[in-house]
Structure prediction request, 344 residues.
Amino acid sequence: MLDESAHSLTRRPRRLRQSAAHRALVREAHVSASDLIQPLFVEEAAGGGAGRTPIAAMPGQYRFSVSALVEEAGRLAALGIPGVALFPAISPDLKDAEARHALDEDGLYPRAIRALKAAHPEMLVMTDVALDPYSSDGHDGLVLGGRIHNDRTLDVLAAMAVLHAQAGADFVAPSDMMDGRVAAIRGALDGAGFTDVGILSYTAKYASAFYGPFRHALSSAPRPREGVPADKKTYQMDPANGREALLEAELDVAEGADVLMVKPGLPYLDVVSALKAHFPAHPVAVYNVSGEYAMVKAAVAAGYLEERGVVMETLLSMKRAGADIILTYHAKDAAVWLREGTHG
Ligand code: PBG
Prediction:
């Protein structure tokens, strides 16, 4: 045997890496199915009777009909996934500049929420509060007088949140980035008696190029009108700014947010880590978005990356950075791998 004591090293970090048991004993971060939320898309008459329409840029993801959505949620629940984040694909003829369909209580979205909660009452349903799926402008706020009108948008968002709560939402998740929306929503929910409905706030949502496949899936990309450009840079955060996320978090906490979320995920783990450090008592969520998913899927399809390893390492890195909750399109696959114990 080769003599390893030729050098008298007293500190040998490799000592704790020598076997799987050693490594498991000192592992700092863990991923479990209970950390994961699966985003799901719902569409009227999806797949022309087949119940689901595949999303081209997001292989393995679908726009589900309401009944197929309910079935999928049942499979996720059986895998130990505690909740879903729901997004609606709204037919173009129902979109207008005021996003009026967002407040239709017989619309696709409230019907989907009611069906999910009726079939799977234990499953948490998180709803998206923003105007873009319903707006002919594709913006999260109202386009009025040549700008995105912050305060007029708040009234619609607050009414949407109440509608979602009435349909059975456990959490409403404002993804719009208007100033003051958490306070407006909390006030409206409490006023309507929904004190137990939580707010998962998109606290630090960046004007990111990683949302492309999602916007394509919902045909919700912003369009220029009245001098308002086809981007979301006047409300979503500048990708250059990390410290500014602390201001957003301070406001969200003061306004009553229950969970603080950072979005996208991998390129913004410094922000996740900063929020956890500054707000240790608040659950922090991260959204591993559509573009991140598409990149992994494309590289896997090309044979450049091994899917399980890359996905589990990605999710683990999010936990290590300080996230308590991960919204990810990989949730279902990851839950299967965790159950099988085949993730390495
Ligand atoms: C819009 C919304 C977006 C996403 C979630 N809610 C897109 C956007 O802001 O344009 C993106 C999610 C993803 O890319 O997976 N309110």
Notes: The chain has one domain: 31-340. The longest helix spans residues 150-167. The chain is about 35% helix and 15% strand. The pocket of PBG is lined by residues 128, 130, 132, 140, 175, 211, 214-215, 232, 289-290 (CB under 6 Å).
